[in-house]
Amino acid sequence: MNTAWTSNLFLKVNALVGKWPVVDRLAIFFAHYALWICVPIFLYTWWSYGIIAPLMAEFLVMAAVAFSLSYMIALWTPRPRPIHQFPDITVLIHTLGTWKSFPSDHALSATLMAYAGWITFPGMIGVLFIFVAIMIAVSRVWVGVHYPRDIFGGITLGVLVIIASKIFTFFPG
Predict the structure, then answer these.
(1) Which residues contact 149 (CB under 8 A, 6 or more apart)?
(2) Whole-angstrom Cα distance, residue 26 to residue 92?
(3) Which helix (H) or strand (E) is 91 found in, with range?
(4) Contact 3, 11 (CB under 8 A)
């Protein structure tokens, strides 16, 4: 069910887990908490700039479309999480649901968050949000809950939804 490259890369990464406790803790932070810290930052900034309504509308529509597509893809192409294929791997966090691995909803959310950061905070702060999004996506592999294929799928879906939102809507940004 898994292609060799994604399983092999996952196992190589997972073999490193536990060797550097600081990296493990950072991965847990990014995989589990970083998105929840970024959302209030956007809401407060959009509210203080007086642009919360159009940007909230844009991102609610994008999120609804993205997650609907994500779950349709998961139903059409069921791919289990790594723990089901490799029961002896090291897993640093536990997920709410174990049935859906591809595409990664965290990578999808991180991609939408990176876009929000880019349009909300021009310059280096926007780049920082892109960095945080990359860390969120990579950390999901490090903590043992996704294959690299899942991350690429979530990022690709996020980028396609962002492009579609620019083509088919008149939202600012």
Answers:
(1) 2, 3, 6, 79, 102
(2) 11
(3) none
(4) no
Residues sharing a CB contact under 8 Å with residue 168, sequence separation 6 or more, in sequence order:
none
- What is the C-alpha to C-alpha distance for residues 128 and 90, in angstroms, rounded to an integer? 29
The span from the CA of 82 to the CA of 125, in Å, is 34
**φ/ψ bin of 171: left (φ > 0), alpha (ψ from -120 to 50), beta (otherwise):** beta
Size (the chain), residues: 173
What does pTM read for this prediction?
A: 0.90
Query: Amino acid identity of 133?
Result: A
| Whether the Cβ atoms of residue 30 and residue 93 lie closer than 8 Å to each other | no
d(CA 25, CA 32): 10
As a whole number of angstroms, the distance between CA 98 and CA 81 comes to 6
Burial 53-86 (b: 16+ CB within 10 A, else e): eebeebbeebeebbbebbeebbeeeebebbbebb
User: Within a 13 Å sphere around the CA of 164, how many CA atoms are in the beta-carbon half?
Assistant: 14
User: At which residue do the structure tokens 């995989």 appear?
Assistant: 31
For 68-118, what is each residue's pLDDT tens digit? Answer: 999 999 999 989 899 989 999 999 998 877 678 999 999 999 999 999 989
